[in-house]
Write a structure and sequence with these properties.
The structure is a single chain. The chain is an alpha/beta fold. The protein is built from 12 helices and 13 strands. The strands form 2 sheets. It has a 10-stranded mixed β-sheet. The radius of gyration is 20 Å and the shape is globular. It binds iron/sulfur cluster (SF4). Iron/sulfur cluster (SF4) binds next to loops.
Length: 364
């Protein structure tokens, strides 16, 4: 395939119920989502995410089966309109740490730069759904300059994570501009890129992209594989392309109810990652994003599963089970966390800063 063939794949994503229904039998409830969502958007009430799926990712699903683990990741449902009282539009409290538009500085030596709101597939459990979507284009030149200037003044920042949205949906030239702007002023900074591209649009990992990324090593790719079905010849080749170019790859999964919340699936996922030279890095407890409770696994069950997984897989294959504490408490590794059960508030979990944050007990 031509290096630019991925753009056609991106342009041809399925973004409407009408097109989707040519390939998947939609339930009444799924159809209702699309109808209801339009109305809610007009009334300014919707916090739901846009819909898009690549034909590649769709092809990995058994689309006639509503329980299929790939289908569930991209198929919207009316459950997205169920809001729990403890769910938040910005569950990680990122806006509180936004120091200049697009740049989040929460941890002393790391910063997070949101470079686009666009993604190849909109994952229905996305915690950044208040930001992610078609309307959020690409970081502007002025925003980029301001973000770089901020990082220059804060030389305690040693790593920057490019995220969004998905940075790798941007054209090579724009990625080069962003990385060039950062690395020309911040020579020692290590760049990480958070992306779902290898699992949802592996055609994007072209020779051209690799040539750009190679210029800015040390650079790490943090990808997201959630289920063994996401491993195909294409996705495995995409992973190899990064690694063979000296770009290490780590994987962050999300623990998702009905998708990967069983020992067999998690163990298989871990084995596939390791065989493909990818370190299972984190497995995240679901964030408290509005309208995502149908994906969250109760914390106690998650802890039990992870304990079982640790007895099944090697140290290399074992991800860290972590939660991002709601409301800006930051990331905490769950096994061994200082955690108390409180009957009214669920779990009270101590952050690295020593403050306690509540996380609901959803097993009740
Ligand atoms: S690729 Fe990442 S940012 Fe985009 S919808 Fe999925 S989880 Fe959210």
């Amino acid at each position: 395939m031509q290096d630019n063939g991925w753009k056609e794949h991106f342009k041809n994503r399925i973004i409407s119920a009408e097109e989707l229904s040519k390939y998947c039998r939609l339930s009444e409830e799924e159809r209702a989502f699309f109808k209801t969502e339009g109305k809610r958007k007009q009334n300014g009430q919707s916090v739901t995410l846009d819909f898009a799926v690549t034909r590649y990712f769709l092809s990995l699903s058994d689309c006639g089966n509503p329980a299929d683990p790939v289908r569930r990741q991209f198929m919207p449902s009316l459950s997205e309109f169920i809001y729990k009282e403890y769910e938040l539009p910005d569950p990680l409290g990122e806006s509180e740490y936004m120091v200049v538009p697009g740049l989040i500085h929460r941890y002393k030596n790391r910063a997070l730069l949101l470079v686009t709101g666009l993604c190849a597939v909109y994952c229905r459990y996305c915690f950044r759904r208040h930001f992610t979507g078609r309307k959020k284009g690409i970081i502007g030149r002025e925003e980029l300059v301001n973000a770089v200037q901020y990082m220059e003044k804060h030389n305690e920042i040693e790593e920057v994570l490019l995220s969004g949205g998905d940075p790798l949906v941007l054209p090579d030239g724009r990625i080069n501009d962003i990385l060039g702007a950062i690395k020309s002023r911040l020579k020692k900074i290590v760049v990480r890129i958070g992306t779902r591209i290898p699992s949802v649009l592996p055609q994007r990992v072209t020779g051209g992209l690799i040539s750009v990324l190679k210029l800015y090593r040390p650079l790490w790719i943090i990808t997201q594989f959630n289920h063994p079905k996401e491993f195909t010849g294409r996705s495995m080749e995409a992973l190899s392309r990064f690694i063979d170019a000296g770009i290490p790859v780590l994987n962050q999964s999300v623990l998702l109810k009905g998708i990967n919340d069983n020992l067999r699936t998690l163990a298989e996922l871990s084995g596939l990652l390791v065989k493909n030279r990818v370190k299972p890095y984190y497995i995240f407890q679901g964030d408290l994003a509005k309208g995502t409770s149908h994906f969250r696994v109760p914390l106690k069950r998650g802890l039990k599963l992870i304990d079982e997984l640790s007895k099944e897989v090697s140290g290399i294959g074992m991800p860290v089970y972590a939660v991002d504490l709601p409301g800006g408490g930051g990331k905490v590794s769950l096994p061994g966390a200082d955690m108390e059960k409180n009957d009214d508030k669920g779990f009270m979990i101590k952050s690295s800063g020593g403050k306690r944050y509540s996380y609901p007990d959803e097993s009740r």
